[in-house]
Amino acid sequence: MPDAPQHPTPPIALFPTALAPATPVRIVVADDNPVVRAGLTALLSGRADITVVAEAADGREAYEAASRHRPDVVLLDVRMPGVDGLSALPYLVPIAPVLMLTYSGEPETVQEALRRGADGYLVHGEFTADQLAAAVRDTVQGRTHLTPTAAGALLTHLRDANAHVNPHAPSPAQRIPLKGLSQLQPSVGQSSSDRSRFQLSAREAEIMDLIASGMTNQQIAAACFISEKTVKNHINRIFAKLHSTSRSEAAAKWLGTAPSSGRGVG
Predict the structure, then answer these.
(1) Neighbouring C-beta atoms of residue 84, cutoff 10 Å
(2) How many CB atoms are closer than 10 A to CB 211?
């Protein structure tokens, strides 16, 4: 492997606050399609601060490569012959953070991958090359990236869990092992009538759900693939509509737990 340049120049990142590491991020690419593997390897190895140390065609090869090379991140497909990505996940996560990179966007698959310890979930066709590189770097720093399909699956899970379990019992959402979302708490999804009452747009309601679930601005930006500045602009508008001055006050009104108001009263 050639020596890394002493002063690598990082590409334009999705989030300007994410700094490139001093040494290259070492990754293993696991995908059964050799064309996809070759493309990802060429794309990411072309970055001064990222290097592909091994490729794998299935989950077993991914585990063997990760055990041998001890990478910083494993990029893992879901559907592979032999040992698939979901089966390999519990064996890979103790070795390195795993970023799912796949065409499989079914909600059940996304939710199961997150339950089994995936640190992020990217669906092909929903990110640019720069966004992929940023997600790889951020995964090393413990930041979670979800493309829109994956973020939608997580929100659906949170809402369904709240709708079908005893509100006083622990929600399944509390057991999702997301390292980048360590503050995640069960969220109450709002109905369209609630959103109308608060006069929130669909995007504002989505962001308010994420605020109520305990995400930081940085985590919301990663989940929605928008900048932190855009998140802050949305939050300012949300606070104005909910007549709130803090996240906790806004969440209480959104969840209907504010002591001086009934559910949906802003």
Answers:
(1) 17
(2) 23
Backbone angles phi, psi at 50, to 5 degrees: -135, 140
Check: CB of residue 178 under 8 Å from CB of residue 144: yes
CA distance 96 to 24: 15
**Six-digit token pair at 226?**
């928008």
Residue 25 bridge partners (DSSP):
50
Tokens 């990142």 sit at which residue?
13
> Which H helix or E strand runs over 101?
strand 98-102
Cα 187 from Cα 214, distance rounded (Å)? 8
3-state secondary structure 177-237: CCHHHCCCCCCCCCCHHHHHHHCCCHHHHHHHHHHHCCCCHHHHHHHHCCCHHHHHHHHHH
pLDDT per residue as tens, the chain (266 positions): 455 445 444 443 344 444 444 689 999 999 999 999 999 999 898 888 999 999 999 999 999 999 999 999 999 999 999 899 999 999 999 999 999 999 988 888 998 998 899 999 999 888 888 899 999 999 998 888 888 888 888 777 776 666 554 444 444 344 333 333 333 333 334 444 555 667 888 888 888 888 887 778 877 876 776 778 888 888 999 999 888 888 888 888 887 765 554 433 33
Question: In a 3-state reduction of DSSP, which class is residue 154?
Answer: helix
Contacts of 112 (CB under 8 A, 6+ apart): 86
What lies within 8 Å, CB to CB, of 196 at 6+ separation is none
